[in-house]
TrEMBL record:
DNA-binding region: 41-60
Gene Ontology molecular-function annotations: DNA binding
Pfam family, one: TetR_N
Keyword rRNA processing: no
InterPro entries: Homeodomain-like_sf, HTH_TetR, TetR_C_31
All residue ranges annotated as the HTH tetR-type domain in the record: 18-78
Keywords: DNA-binding
Keyword DNA-binding listed: yes
Name listed for the protein in its UniProt record: TetR family transcriptional regulator
């Protein structure tokens, strides 16, 4: 367990301490959104939060410690936005994906930059792997446990949605609600069984 994780979980951490740590995590996401993960340093995060550098080094022992904590915050943010996704309701699912990839694009880009950074920083990999279970968790609710080829269909739909989000972040398309809905409907098609998905 990292030093920052111990401090965050410790009952000795005061309300002021938790508020400071949260402010530093907010600042870290802002730095990544604006300048990318390479710009993330204790000094940059502290300056963004309006706190001394010593505050950042107190709560986060090193850069990996800081990155892991920011990734966990990103996962929680992602789950709060995309986690309610209802794979049986195309309109609702499309609205959720569009909100995340279009309306909250800068935050979503920062999230995916952190996710890709896990390919080079082993400390991030366990949490990055967890991230990928979240979408499949939600899609799994669309199929009964005894559905034919259930695991394959869930995985296929998750890969399609993830690819769609990346395309929207990179190219800004599809963009309109109608186009996003069509793309999401196609991505969720493997989960459709006897017209189980809600029609328009």
């Amino acid at each position: 367990m990292s030093p920052s994780a111990r401090r965050d979980d410790s009952p000795r951490l005061t309300a002021k301490g938790r508020a400071r740590r949260d402010a530093l995590l907010d600042a870290a996401l802002t730095v990544i959104e604006r300048d990318g993960p390479a710009a993330l340093t204790h000094r940059a995060v502290a300056a963004e939060a309006g706190l001394p550098t010593s505050a950042a080094t107190y709560y986060f022992a090193d850069i990996d410690d800081l990155l892991v904590s920011v990734l966990r915050r990103s996962i929680a943010d992602y789950d709060a936005t995309v986690g309610p996704l209802d794979a049986l309701d195309v309109d609702a699912a499309a609205a959720t994906i569009r909100q995340y990839a279009i309306d909250e694009r800068s935050t979503a880009v920062a999230h995916y930059e952190l996710l890709l950074l896990a390919t080079r920083r082993p400390a991030l990999r366990p949490d990055a792997e967890h991230w990928y279970t979240l979408l499949e968790r939600d899609l799994a609710t669309a199929l009964p446990e005894d559905a034919q080829d259930r695991a394959t269909r869930i995985s296929t739909a998750a890969l399609a949605l993830d690819g769609l989000i990346l395309r929207m972040l990179w190219r800004g398309e599809p963009h309109t609600p109608a186009d996003v809905r069509a793309a999401v409907a196609a991505a969720l098609a493997p989960l459709s069984d006897d017209d189980a998905m809600t029609s328009a």
